[in-house]
Amino acid sequence: MASLYLHIPFCEHKCIYCDFYSVAPTETGGNYESLTGRFLSALRKEIDVRSADARFQVVYDTVFFGGGTPSLLSPSNIGEILETLNRNFSIRKNAEITLETNPGTVDLRKLSEFRQVGVNRISFGVQSFYEDDLRFLTRIHTSKEAVENVRNAYHAGFDNVSIDLIFSLPGQNIERWASNLRQAVALEPAHLSCYSLIVEPNTQLHRMVQAKQVSTLPAEEDANLYEFTMEYLSAQGFEQYEVSNFAKFGYRSRHNSNYWNHSNYLGFGPSAHSFWSHDEAVGCSSRWWNIANVVEYAHRLGHGHMPVQGEEQLSGQQLMEEEIFLGLRSDGIDVAGFRKKYAWDFLVHHSSTIKGLLEDNLASLSGQRLRLTSKGYLLCDEICRSFLT
Amino acid sequence: MNHIRNFCIVAHIDHGKSTLADRLLEITHTISAREMTKQVLDDMELEQERGITIKLHAIPMKYKSLDGKEYTLNLIDTPGHVDFTYEVSRSLAACEGAVLVVDATQGVEAQTISNLYLAVDAGLEIIPFINKIDLPSAKTMIETVKKQVVDLVGCKEEEILSGSAKSGVGTTEVLEAIVQRIPAPKGDPAAPLRALIFDSVFDEYRGAVAYVRIFDGTVREKDKIRFFSNGKEFQADEIGVLEMQRKRTGVLSAGDVGYVIASVKDVHDTKVGDTITLVSNPAPEPLAGYREPKPMVFSGLYPSNSDDFAELRDALEKLRLNDAAVVFEPETSVALGFGFRAGFLGLLHMEIVQERLEREYDQSLINTVPNVEYRVTRTNAEVLTIDNPSFMPEAGVVEKIGEPFVKAQIIAPSEYIGGIMKLCMDRRGIHKNTTYLSPERADIQYELPLAEIIFDFYDKLKSLSRGYASFDYDFLEYRESDLVKLDILLNGEPVDALSTIVHRSKAYEWGRKLCSKLRELIPRQMFEVAIQAAIGSKVIARETLSAMRKNVLAKCYGGDITRKRKLLEKQREGKKRMKQVGRVEVPQEAFLAVLSMEE
Question: What superfamily would CATH give domain A2-258?
Fold first, then answer.
């Protein structure tokens, strides 16, 4: 399994909580149109250069347009990028091709065109169905637009629709959150991502919290909302396959699962991350990431340089630790596979930790898979830490 | 010999002992004003910071008296704290006289009295000097202070000198009094050698250096010398007097103060209080008063990171080379791993050792709650010495337990007597006597279990008397007490490093407070933690630390797994400083919980 990621670094407006890299028109000094053009040609260049490396000539299973707001691009732009990818890489026929979409940037026609150029999975950043929440988060769409466009997506021919929601918003109580979940489920998405509002440094939200204009939800409330999410979605037939991700049977995000399974992926565009195991041997894996600046990104590629900002070689120990925490955060650790891959018996080396987790109903061990329970997901970071020696 | 005076300065802390010493050195041109840093005698970094003198020093001054003759005045410095009483007594024994410094604004304090008694016991001529008379508040106090001194020393008022060590007023009079009133040393340079070791230091290149006062006889370089306490023999390589640096003279004889270097590799062979004699012509008897340094307070010393045990051992070995009073031996704790049980002369000594290990030897330490040494008689009449509470035998096989008691003296303004007596009663003190040094100033005497004063007693005393009470103590004897071992259990697992020995009457309260303090200090775990205090198998207090609710970043992080891993790696560093008790992770602060317990 291998994946391709494309970071589209444009937003109509930057939301106060978001720390992913993007630029808004107001930040480009009136050069927004030309910047988009320069970005697209730089992206083509990056794809060309990468694909020339024989190591990356494998069959790809997923393509993911993230951002930023990829749905700001026109369907023809997206179509052209997909064509470039198809020209340079071998992409499986039934590959999962996802487009992150802001409900305020599309309509039925645009969605139909996205579908026509090859996108087959839509992930809507709905966040909340309450207008005051949307205003607080400085989203550019209304609740009504979100509902309409989810329905439009079905009309446009998408059957694989995902909805993103954010909980632990300031002042949010369990009733409001439950109502959000109910309304989302009523739209019958195949997939739901529920993230807790995290105050990231260098965001507007962080400055507001620092200035005491906003107070975050108490930890106990945050725990209650998360616990409710897991219980409710499980009852609605969603399977939790990661800390924040829930899917109907057969509709897990294959792209994200690849991240969590340590599969190879190439990332294109500013701030995109890539990961590649060069061969079967453990310890020959590297990760690199592009510069988080679209002007610099386009400039470098325009001058024949790669836009890589940093890179690291992962030691066997680091890979193993990553595999432990990625596994625990998602679908569990395949103990037999682990033993085979690292010649290291997870069950033996962590017997007392695992015994404790099983006793406290924080994890389950069935067959050869050690998986966290809902109670375990609540304490996931703590549990990961207890495995790090 | 008639032109030698051996003297010391005794005072309560901060009454100006070091300042007076500095001034005398300056007047006698022993050290030029340019060389003069403030308080030259305190040359250890730690001493200067704390404003206290830890190690002893000696320094000769040449002084031309009003009688026209030149004298050698040997100033022997003494440590100023209760922990070092024995060392004080040995340096006093090397003198014929003492200058007693009393702060004109403070009057007589506990250490003034205890040091004076030591000086009187040593038969010294006392020269009282009232210091800081230039301070505005001295005017109203000085007559009272004079009266206190007359009562205390039994001298005439006109024998009391006064002045200001800081500005130099009245300090020449001090030098003159030293010459006139303090007798010249006696002794026969031709008699068999008897040299008192009143201090020793470790020199990295020369080994142990003994600072000596010669009472009888003469010692020359190349002489074979013998230490009375252990019979070990060495050859004297270098002999001299102590100026700002050592000054080689090749010979010392009766009345002199100086040093002997004899390729002694271990500072433990040059013990304070021991007598040196000559192998060729030995003295029949040593000088009186030698005793082995006796640790009174014990504590476990563990490396913060269990991997650093060997480094800590090396640091302790090095430190022991210049501190003969510290003792240690390896021990193992279930909770803390490999470490040492160390014995100290007292609390201050313990703090100094810990600080030196951290500063000079760069060690990161966990020190356990200090305790005293218990004498346990088993039902089969066997007597054990227990310096680690976790080794206390089960109550069933214990006949009785003895603990050290001290004689404590507290001097404070009389308005604080009530508070002080309550504090002493809370600490199981037995009131012996209260006398008044003046209508406003009381001398309160108690017998107290040492265990009750080794932590926070002094701080409590200071705070309840707004800093005015002073305190001194001396070991008295071992007494039988109704003591029990209090264990702390985390989810049923005993934490050996948290075991304490307490009086039965206090066990419940202690257990309750300790459990509640631990509940604050131990972070929530993934599971509920029962914190229990128990005497034997009987649980006497319990607190429940509820399980952590949520610790997961439910965040979208895309392909940026590096960031996620770095967050976890950072958390792991934090985890390294935690100690594991069963499945419970205990932070290092918890092992000192007892010290931060509120009354």
Answer: tm_1862 like domain (3.80.30.20)
